[in-house]
Amino acid sequence: MLHLHRSCLCFRSWLPAMLAVLLSLAPSASSDISAxxxxxxxxxxxxLGIGDIGCYGNNTMRTPNIDRLAxxxxxxxxxxxxxxxxxxxxxxxLTGRYPVRSGMVSSIGYRVLQWTGAxxxxxxxxxxxxxxxxxxxYATGLIGxxxxxxxxxxASDHCHxxxxxxxxxxxxxxxxxxxxxxxxxxxxxxxxxxxxxxFLFQVLALVALTLVAGKLTHLIPVSWMPVIxxxxxxxxxxxxxxxxxxxxxxxxxxxxxxHTITEQPMCFRRTTPLILQEVASFLKRNKHGPFLLFVSxxxxxxxxITMENFLGKSLHGLYGDNVEEMDWMVGRILDTLDxxxxxxxxxxxxxxxHGGSLENQxxxxxxxxxxxxxxGGKGMGGWEGGIRVPGIFRWPGVLPAGRVIGEPTSLxxxxxxxVRLAGGEVPQDRVIDGQDLLPLLLGTAQHSDHEFLMHYCExxxxxxxxxxxxxxxxxKVHFVTPVFQPEGAGACYGRKVCPCFGEKVVHHDxxxxxxxxxxxxxxxxxxxxxxxxxxxxxxRVQQAVREHQRTLSPVPLQLxxxxxxxxxxxxxxCGPFPLCWCxxxxxxx
Length: 589
Prior knowledge:
The chain is of the alpha/beta class. The protein folds into two domains: about 35-175 and about 250-580, 3-Layer(aba) Sandwich (Alkaline Phosphatase, subunit A); about 185-245. It contains 13 helices and 18 strands. The protein has helices at about 1-25, 65-70, 85-95, 100, 130-135, 190-215, 225-250, 270-285, 315-340, 385, 415-420, 440, 535-550, and strands at about 40-45, 75-80, 140-145, 170-175, 255, 260-265, 290-295, 345-350, 360, 365, 390-395, 405, 410, 450-455, 460-470, 475-480, 505-515, 580-585. Strands 1, 2, 3, 4, 5, 6, 7, 8, 11, 12, 13 and 18 form a twelve-stranded mixed beta sheet that branches. Strand 5 and strand 6 form a beta hairpin. The longest helix has 29 residues, at about 225-250. This is ARSE isoform 3. GO terms for molecular function: hydrolase activity; metal ion binding. InterPro entries: Alkaline_phosphatase_core_sf, Sulfatase, Sulfatase_CS, Sulfatase_N.
């Protein structure tokens, strides 16, 4: 039996090389490549800037393992996320569809899911690539961050859980790592909630004191009951403001294995070793394949949890330490593939969910990523810095090593690409916005199938790009842009992210036009005086926008208020609520 397994491994190791030879002799043979049914390993960083990686131009950050993937594979230089924040971007990645189609957007400023105990999430009628690959016989796993919802009506229905979206195995955070998990000064919601609760406490305390004074002086004819209730409410609000930080830590910062909470709240010194141990375990269990493993890193989102042996080692403070630790994790995963004999039979993909956060800053210390030459960052719907991300594919013996592709591609393209490789079919009952990347990666196609890409901020269309292939030009049109603060800055400092609508955005008439093929930094606005085809470009892009909008159907918005508020009865808890505390697994070996 052992001899048989070795034979299988040997067969799988030379099969990709044979396919590459066949493809070089006959490009049409690319239609048969899905017969190889490779293992698929998807690596996604959280909040990583495209300028943070050596192979994308950073010569002061050490990322040798990610750089090695690019050297041995294909690097995409115009790889675009479908949204500039994690929840909508990840929804688009898994479904191959703009998040506005699935309702994984908001219209009121709730840019991502705010609580684990909220009812919003990836709708059950959406089809992920994991679901299709599972049906084709793949073992499917997700390790790390989810942030696409959990429950609908009870604390245990798990209607939005990864296991209800095609994954056989899940280990990680159903929510997201955030500054509030470590009670950082950079806070997503704790500081705001504390301020609101303190304000309400002061109002009710003033009301109670006024009623007491009026009662004692006989100026206000009132019974003692309103006085007592006002005082009790004030005390309750004061206590809530004191404990809200602990509530967030227990409510959102925990680990699950499949449907079971294993650690609530998280013990951060264990997290990275546990993630790596889980990845290695999955690869060893499923090494006879085929498998799909999505490793959704908690790095490099604040609070930048970093092991002691990486602290102070980079040239870029805690953020750089965290990036370099993530690169080390990539190296450990690649080592496991080598040891298990899986490297040649596994397609690896590395990316980030969106650009780095410029607003993650305290004083002169930057805790967010660098987006290289590109303008803007995380949360900005149209500017390149928020949506242009790394894109690296490696499949030894099949994909040409060292190939660089500048054509427009999207995170949504992973959906049809892996579905085809697995021998599956892209759903025909819905619009799929992603395009199969295989011909481009293999070199059998010269151009991307994306003529247009739309760039949303919540449900609002902020920008669009047009690849005018006959001229070799990449046009970018901005309909709406955020107002940077302070004036002249490159971000919305003083806020967590830039807004999508309201007084702090500008609606451009005429829209702003850039030629990204000559001006990737979006610094030179083209006008009718400086660009002879200005009006033709505008008309063609606006026509494409109208055609795109005709394909949209009304759906419930999962991130709007009703689906995005904390509901105690939906709160996962490993003990009787609110005593949510447990540690059910040993330290990693």
